[in-house]
Amino acid sequence: MSEQLHALERRLAALESENAIRACMNRYMFLCDELGVASPLDELANLFCEDAIWEGKGAKYRDTFGGYRGREAIKEMFALYMVEPVHFVLNVHFLTSELIRVRGEHASASWVMLQTSTFASGASHLNSARLTIEFRQEQGQWRMAHFVTENLFSRPVAFWNNSVELPVPNKNVE
Fold first, then answer.
1. What pLDDT sits at residue 173?
2. pTM of whole model > 0.85?
3. Which residue numbers in the chain have pLDDT < 70?
4. Which fold has domain 2-157?
């Protein structure tokens, strides 16, 4: 019975770890969506391990974003977006195709991301990327250790929100 109990404890710990990793990514995406001068930059940076790596992969993202080594360098990269006027007038990240694999105090995860953005210039963009992230427990908290974003597609769009009424079936039809 003792071995069964230990197996259940390991499975429960893995499920709790997956949930903590998912919460870390959720908070990261929320903070990125709201990135501006009043953003809690220290909180955003603390989602990463002290020696974390953040990198753009593939020609488009490598050349656009580059790579950063260490929490402080990652923090400085995000600080570049904390300007007036705000860089992102609209920024929404959507994650799908999640896969999280926990191995003790380490985990690997991947998502497909869709990002809709409108910039201070008025231009809007639709991007999709594959996120591949290594997580590690540091000081009792799951944090990102190696964040890789690889562009799948990018394209400008004319605008997101239109004042035209949404088409709905006629409610007055009897």
1. 53
2. yes
3. 1, 171-174
4. Nuclear Transport Factor 2; Chain: A, (3.10.450)
Q: Tokens 């259940």 appear where?
A: 8
Q: Count Cβ neighbours within 10 Å for each residue of 56-89 and write b for 16 or more, e otherwise.
A: bbeebbeeeeebbeebeebbeebeebeeeebbbb
Tokens representing residue 34 in the block: 């709201």
The sign of the torsion formed by the CA atoms of 37, 41, 44, 50 equals positive
Q: Which two tokens stand for residue 68?
A: 């950063």
Q: In which residue are the tokens 């400008």 written?
A: 156
The distance in angstroms from the start CA to the end CA of the chain is 67
What HEC string does the chain produce? CHHHHHHHHHHHHHHHHHHHHHHHHHHHHHHHHCCCCCCCHHHHHCCEEEEEEEEEEHHHHHHHHCEEECHHHHHHHHHCCCCCCCCEEEEEEEEEEEEEEEECCEEEEEEEEEEEEEECCCCEEEEEEEEEEEEEEECCEEEEEEEEEEEEEEEEECCCCCCCCCCCCCCCCC
Q: How many angstroms separate the Cα of 2 from the Cα of each of 9, 11, 16, 103? A: 11, 14, 21, 22
